[in-house]
């Protein structure tokens, strides 16, 4: 069992540092049970969500005490080769 806070930084106009903060705060309530969800591309706003911002969010979401990451949405990731490559490099350490 895990808690999965929706750390959709672009959607709420926050930084990758905010993602880290959410993970840490959630871990205080549920130690060793945090599996954050991050967004892959822009949602609800017309503002861009760059590959650089996605990369920073991914790194932040995976920092301790996180137990992994959920990517929203997988279909969107499959359509964006640049972001898919970022995931491969970070998660698979390619």
Structure overview:
The structure is a single chain. By secondary structure, this protein is mostly helical. It has four helices and two strands, in the order αβαβαα. The protein has a two-stranded parallel ribbon. α2 (51-62) links the parallel β1 (37-39) and β2 (70-72). The longest helix is centred in the N-terminal third of the chain and has 14 residues, at 16-29.
Tags for this model:
two-stranded parallel sheet, 4 helices, 94 residues, 2 strands, mainly alpha, 45% helix
Radius of gyration from the alpha-carbon trace, in angstroms: 13 Å
Report the span from N to C terminus. 29 Å
Order the strands across the largest sheet as they lie in space: 1-2
The computed structural class is mainly alpha
Oligomer category: single chain
State mean pLDDT (0 to 100 scale): 96
Low-confidence stretches: none
Share of helix among residues? 40-55%
Count of individual helical segments:
4
Order of helices and strands: HEHEHH
Coarse shape = globular
User: What can be said about the biggest beta sheet?
Assistant: 2 strands, parallel
Please specify the SSE layout and strand pairing.
Blueprint: H1 16-29, E1 37-39, H2 51-62, E2 70-72, H3 74-78, H4 81-91
Parallel strand pairs: 1-2
Helix pairs in contact: 1-2, 2-4
Quick take:
The chain is built from 4 helices and 2 strands, in the order H-E-H-E-H-H. By secondary structure, it is mostly helical.
């Amino acid at each position: 069992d895990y808690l999965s806070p929706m750390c959709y930084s672009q959607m709420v106009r926050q930084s990758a540092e905010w993602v880290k903060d959410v993970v840490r705060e959630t871990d205080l309530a549920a130690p060793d049970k945090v599996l954050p969800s991050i967004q892959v591309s822009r949602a609800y706003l017309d503002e861009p969500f760059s590959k650089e911002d996605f990369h920073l969010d991914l790194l932040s979401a995976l920092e301790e005490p996180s137990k992994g990451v959920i990517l929203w949405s997988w279909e969107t990731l499959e359509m964006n080769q640049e972001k898919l490559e970022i995931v491969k490099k970070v998660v698979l350490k390619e």
